[in-house]
Design brief:
heterodimer; A: mainly beta; 7-stranded mixed β-sheet; 4-stranded antiparallel β-sheet; 11 strands; 0% helix; B: mainly beta; 6-stranded mixed β-sheet; 53% strand
């Protein structure tokens, strides 16, 4: 079945630094990738929708200058959390979609900002 | 306002019984609804999709119903096993008419625990 690889699986960084998270679709071309954030015991909150070769569409309340999304190819999207602060600590999950199929999710990245 | 609600935050049942999880939505008219399983520290895994013109969908021990009049979907696991313990999420696409590359909105999830 379709596999989405997300890297790193966890990261600890200092406040003020930037962190990049990669999301790759390994055996299919993803026309669209989605980035979610999940706080403990809460559901996934959609942050942004990313289409290859175009600017990401951000959900209301998500700062596009803080969460930079790049979707350079049909198999790779990256999320960069810039100038991270402790309140950005969360579980970030990407998903990828190809035409006619449900979403395939990565295994998430646990970000801890100290 | 638009909402997707899974009315049980947690559900504990005895092994072998049928687990029934509920998903209700308001102010949406989705063309389809999906159910996912999420284990701790992992991404969700797709289980089933049911379209608005389908009343029921089955996959092995799983069964999903979709009542567009009640705006409700029920998710059943028959002959439940401890390995079924996980969080189950319902999800819908508020916009598209098909399941291709669409934005998905998730419910808050139900944490299911099956005790031996």
């Amino acid at each position: 079945g379709a596999v989405v690889s997300q890297h790193p699986s966890w990261v600890i960084c200092k406040s003020g630094t930037s962190v990049k998270i990669e999301c790759r679709s390994l055996d299919f071309q993803a026309t669209t990738m989605f980035w979610y954030r999940q706080f403990p015991k809460q559901s996934l909150m959609l942050m942004a929708t990313s289409n290859e070769g175009s600017k990401a569409t951000y959900e209301q309340g998500v700062e596009k200058d803080k969460f930079l999304i790049n979707h350079a190819s049909l198999t790779l999207s990256t999320l960069t959390v810039t100038s991270a602060h402790p309140e950005d600590s969360s579980f970030y999950i990407c998903s990828a979609a190809s035409l006619g199929s449900p979403l395939h999710f990565g295994n998430g990245t646990r970000l801890t900002v100290t | 306002s638009q909402k997707i609600e899974q009315n049980s935050e947690a559900l504990n049942i005895q092994e072998g019984k049928t687990a029934t999880l509920t998903c209700n939505y308001t102010n949406y008219s989705p063309a389809y609804l999906q159910w996912y399983r999420q284990d701790p520290g992992r991404g969700p895994v797709f289980l089933l999709l049911i379209r608005e013109n389908e009343k029921e969908k089955r996959k092995e021990r799983l069964k999903v119903t979709f009542d567009t009049t009640l705006k409700q979907s029920l998710f059943h696991i028959t002959a439940s096993q401890p390995a079924d313990s996980a969080t189950y999420l319902c999800a819908l696409d508020p916009v598209s008419l098909d399941s291709s590359a669409s934005k998905i909105i998730f419910g808050s999830g139900t944490r299911l625990s099956i005790r031996p």
